[in-house]
């Protein structure tokens, strides 16, 4: 069974590949932050300098991912999602920097860890949003697959439109006359 690509827009294909590569480099930092914040590792006696170092590595990954994402050119369908991705990576970078300083000072608390986790989760959601705008680029169909007519925008023949309109108008007029006859007949009896 031979397969063919549904979308052939080179810009969208390159953008989708770029987003995939960025995610591959950012995902280890996401996992690290989830381990630190989600497992509350910051409370279990980890050396503050080690914790700060881990947060700074994640901060650096957020920074480099944001820089590389700035170099990507999104297709028109992904522009808003791309701007959101850039913003969430920048915000995450800043939050992780503040948390690294707080970890060094042994001032990391439950609220700060929650903010850090939300910032990391926002980047994951932004990556998914940017990637989903190019999801059709990765859609494949078989050559022998059923091709629904609604994909091609089949229009109704022009000759049927006036006939349908006149039939509808005639039916409405007939119903109005029947209703009017019922009202007149009903008022004459009462």
Structure described in brief:
This protein has 2 domains: 140 residues, Four Helix Bundle (Hemerythrin (Met), subunit A) (Up-down Bundle), CATH 1.20.120; 31 residues. Helix content is 69%, strand content 3%.
Topology, element by element:
Layout: E1 3-5, H1 10-38, H2 48-70, H3 79-104, H4 110-132, E2 140-142, H5 160-189
Antiparallel strand pairs: 1-2
Radius of gyration, Cα only, in angstroms? 30 Å
Q: Given the structure, what is the number of helices?
A: 5
**CATH level-3 fold name of the largest domain:** Four Helix Bundle (Hemerythrin (Met), subunit A)
Quickly give the CATH architecture of the largest domain: Up-down Bundle
Helix content: 55-70%
Main sheet strand line-up: 1-2
Order of helices and strands: EHHHHEH
Low-confidence stretches: 1-8, 137-152
Q: How far is the first residue's CA from the last residue's CA?
A: 76 Å
Give the class-level CATH name of the largest domain.
Mainly Alpha
Give the number of domains.
2
Overall pLDDT? 79
Beta fraction? under 5%
**Which term fits the overall shape?**
elongated
